Amino acid sequence: MWITTGGAGPAGTVTRVTAPTTTPTAPAPDRSPPGQPDLPTLLAAAVAAVPGGVPRPGQEQMATAVAQAAATGEHLVVQAGTGTGKSLAYLVPALQVDGPAVVSTATLALQSQLVDHDLPRLADAAEPLLRRRPSFAVLKGRHHYLCLAKLEGSSEEEPPDTLFDNSGGGGTRWLGELGRLGKQLQRLRDWGLETATGDRDELDPGVDDTAWRQVSMPARECVGAAKCAYGAECFAEAARERARSADIVVTNHSLLAIDMLAGGYILPPHKLLVVDEAHELADRVTSAAQAELTADAVDRAARRARRLVEPEVHDALTEAGDALTVGLGQTAAGRLVGPLPGPLQEACTLLDAATRAALSGIGEVKADDPDGVTKQPARAVLEELSVTAQRLVSADDADVAWVERPERLDRPGGGRPALVVAPLSVAGTLADHLYRERVVVATSATLALGGAFDTIARTLGLAPAGPAEDVDGQPPWTSLDVGSPFDYRRQGILYVAAHLPRPRESGLPDASAAELVRLVGALGGRTLGLFSSRRAAERAGEVLRERTDLPVLVQGEESLPLLVRRFREDQGSCLLGVMSLWQGVDVPGDACQLVVIDRLPFPRPDEPLAAARSAAADAAGGSGFASVSVPVAAVRLAQGAGRLIRSTTDRGVVAVLDSRLHTARGYGTYLRRSLPPFWYTTEPEAVVAALSRLAAVDTAATT
Questions:
Q1: Would the pLDDT of 263 be above 80?
Q2: Is residue 163 helix, strand or coil?
Q3: What average pLDDT does the segment 310-321 reach?
Q4: Are residues 403 and 327 in the same domain?
């Protein structure tokens, strides 16, 4: 052992919202039908099917809690640290639920892990015990599936409504691009004759987004199976039918959010919903409820409607788009407080009137309408524009509006501007819709922020823990922390560079750069650098290349999957990047033994939603910084620090180059309590010595 201090942190803490005391998890009742295996037997078989699988107390405790929640109807919020095996802990009891159980994930990586590995192994292990093979299905958004109606109507020449669409920023497409598009469409037509699922993810090699849009149908533009000539053969409908008959349905947070907002007609009826990566759910629901207006979108809607409405109606749409262009050009990027500025208010009013007139001109799409496949997409985009314009004109305190100019590498001034509106909070939406007629299990490795579940409970629309009389009719729920099988105090060090000055400037300060070089040099690479801005990451790359001979990989220089693979394979390399590296990067072993975080990941002051939520908390007499910024930083920091220890044999250091984590007595303590219980120090010499010993041990092991 290279660290010889301390022991593991506490695990198994349970809190019930209807009682202020801590209670143990009771054994789940055996709900297995006669002759069917009980939960421990089924879980043991599933674990044995995993290569190197061994029983884990935290996994067993979580599986029992999930089964108990399904039996009692009491919702469950469970923190399961890395290495717990939480997937099997909820998949196994899900098999015992009457009817399908739904599992929602935030990332494609976890969805692929479930579908490609965990569920097939579970089916193999459970089949002899259940005397049938459990089934599972993946349900994605309609636009992920090939649309036969659009495929039939596609041609090698791009349709008029997208031929001159330069929303991607590349300008009007040239003939070479159109020729490539034609080849991709022909390959899609050939694939359409042989595919059994129509799922885009099964098309190898894939096609670009422009080609896929010609043969896919967003849900809002679909006329419905009953009105479509290809309804009986529809791939999206077939996927929904498979989901209705499956034991376990895997979906994603975005589709779950759309299902809630649309009244629950997308997912099959189910009694158990598992929300994995639950710390991401509120943001995904916010994104689903977010809308925007752009001049390009209005222009595309006008082109789609041109053949369906009178010329003066089409002209009104065009004029509204021009007015929006002018209004956005006159308005600085950032949050809009109060009523919209005059030019934007006028543009939205014109757009609302023009879209209403166009919808009236097109009329309703009837089942026997021969032009329904053309009319419905046009109506869908017009309706969306109309609703968004009305929402912006009549915006109240429940919504936040802002002008956004996306950063573009090829355009220093930013991409095309958009007028965006999003809900200030989705807690009420979740409280009203997430828990209706089903048991919800919300799980993640980072839910107990500051050592408690109250923050995540409020985010997910649950009442904070307290006596039963304070719950006010909200659904009862239980929280559980099953800990982690890792001995964090022996496997890792949390080092805070308390001697560094408080970070004030953007980018990477010289003192922080020097500290980075010293730490990386002591270990000899094997460093994942997580930075608060692209400017800081690029500066760190420059410094390391100037002062070391180590291979340095910087996000943005190549595709992220390729960079991660190179980092994993070259154990002397350093990988530096921004927020997308803070979670989802899984590099166990010697390739990643130092995680460096340049500063505490508070939301930027110019993030419109975070700023609006902070202002609302301040106005209500609270602290926006404490209730909004600090919890956001806690989740991000815990996710970033979680990149270090990924197996029981991993060793290393999390180094935070922001002295506030140590010196800020209030939020600094809260943030540290949100992290795994590493051995903690602020002594640079001790950390450099530990990294040098670790480098020496690894060098000896390879010689």
A1: yes
A2: helix
A3: 95
A4: yes
The answer on pLDDT for 159 being more than 80 is no
Model confidence, pTM:
0.84
Report yes or no on 580 lying in a domain.
yes
The predicted model gives 663-685 an average pLDDT of 95
Residue 200 lies in a domain: yes
Which two tokens mark 515?
Answer: 């500290």
Q: Please tell me the distance from the alpha carbon of residue 506 to that of residue 516, in angstroms, as a whole number.
A: 16
Phi and psi at residue 449, to the nearest 5°: -80, 130
Reported in sequence order, the residue ranges of 468-555 that DSSP labels E, i.e. its strands, are 477-481, 492-496, 527-530, 552-554
Domain closes at, from 446, 481, 516: 481
Contacts of 256 (CB under 8 A, 6+ apart): 102, 104, 267, 273, 275, 281, 284
DSSP 411: B
Contacts of 104 (CB under 8 A, 6+ apart): 250, 251, 252, 253, 255, 256, 273, 274, 275, 276, 281
- If pLDDT is split at 50, 70 and 90, which confidence band does 3 have? very low
Q: Which residue has the tokens 């992220």?
A: 560
- Same-domain pairing of 160 and 270: no
How far apart CA 439 and CA 101 sit, in angstroms, is 10
Q: CATH number, domain at 524? A: 3.40.50.300
**Count of CB atoms within 10 A of residue 245's CB?**
11
* SS3 of 273-300: EEEECHHHHHHHHHHHCCEEECHHHHHH
> What's the domain range around 228?
142-241
For 120-145, the DSSP string reads: HHHHHHHHHHHTS---EEE---GGGB
> Cα–Cα distance between 563 and 270 in angstroms, integer?
40
Whether the bond between 205 and the residue before it is cis, its omega within 30 degrees of 0, is yes
**93 & 46 share domain:** yes
149 and 75 in one domain?
A: no
**Is residue 2 in some structural domain?**
no
Q: How far apart are CA 560 and CA 418, in angstroms?
A: 27
- Give dist(CA 613, CA 180) in Å, integer: 46
Question: pLDDT band at residue 447, thresholds of 50, 70 and 90?
Answer: very high
- 588 and 688 part of one domain: yes
Q: Within 13 Å, how many C-alpha atoms sit on residue 207's CB side? A: 25
Identify the bridge partners of residue 655 per DSSP, sorted by sequence position. 495, 596
- Whether residues 336 and 210 share a domain: the answer is no
Helix axes 534-547, 510-523, angle to 10 degrees: 50
Average pLDDT over residues 672-682: 95
Burial of 584 (0-12, 13-18, 19+ CB in 10 A): middle
| Beta bridge partner(s), residue 292 | 420
Q: 32 pLDDT band (50/70/90 cuts)?
A: low
Q: Report the 10 Å Cβ neighbour count for 215.
A: 25
Q: CA–CA separation, 503 vs 535, rounded Å?
A: 14
Concatenated DSSP letters for 348-402? HHHHHHHHHHHHHHH----TT-TTHHHHHHHHHHHHHHHHHHHHHHT--TTEEEE
Q: Which of 241, 272, 301 is the last residue of a domain?
A: 241
Q: Of the ranges 161-175, 323-337, 504-518, 628-642, which one carries the lowest mean pLDDT score?
A: 161-175
The owner of tokens 């949390």 is 494
Q: How many independent structural domains does the chain possess?
A: 4
How confident is the model at residue 367, as a pLDDT? 67
